[in-house]
Design goal:
Blueprint: E1 18-19, E2 24-26, E3 46-47, H1 53-58, H2 64-79, H3 83-86, H4 91-98, H5 107-129
Antiparallel strand pairs: 1-2, 2-3
């Protein structure tokens, strides 16, 4: 999915820029807006009063939380049989459930994606066996 050094434009996900009333921009998950997390520079990608959103997106892969999220997506793709359906879960869920973005599984994914596919698969198997 991603190769080191290729930056952001090779990634096929929507960065979902969210802009606060003060012009602060966060990426990947609007739920991160206003959250204090010094280790992630409070998820600040920039401010629209200082830089264009396009410029922020060009440099987004340099943000620690974006890079961790991309690593998490790579890890999910490599290890999870459900990746083709869920595409790696939501950034906000990763952070709020696991405290980081490079984790591979969230409760949100287990109950809203994986359980759905397992139930559907079980139903199809039962119907085919009948």
């Amino acid at each position: 999915m991603r190769r080191a050094g290729n930056g952001w434009r090779d990634v096929l996900i929507d960065p979902i820029p969210a802009v606060s009333s003060a012009g602060e921009v966060v990426l990947l998950s609007p739920e991160l807006a206003g959250v204090t997390a010094p280790g992630y520079q409070d998820f600040r990608a920039g401010n629209v009063l200082e830089r264009s959103i396009g410029a922020m997106l060009t440099d987004a892969h340099r943000l620690r939380y974006v890079d961790e999220f991309l690593t998490g997506l790579d890890n999910c793709e490599a290890t999870c049989e459900f990746f083709g359906f869920c595409r790696g879960a939501q950034a906000g869920n990763r952070f709020f459930e696991n405290g980081c973005f490079d984790s591979t599984e969230t409760n949100h994914c287990r109950v809203s994606k994986q359980a759905l596919l397992i139930a559907l698969s079980d139903t199809v198997r039962k119907e085919q066996a009948a």
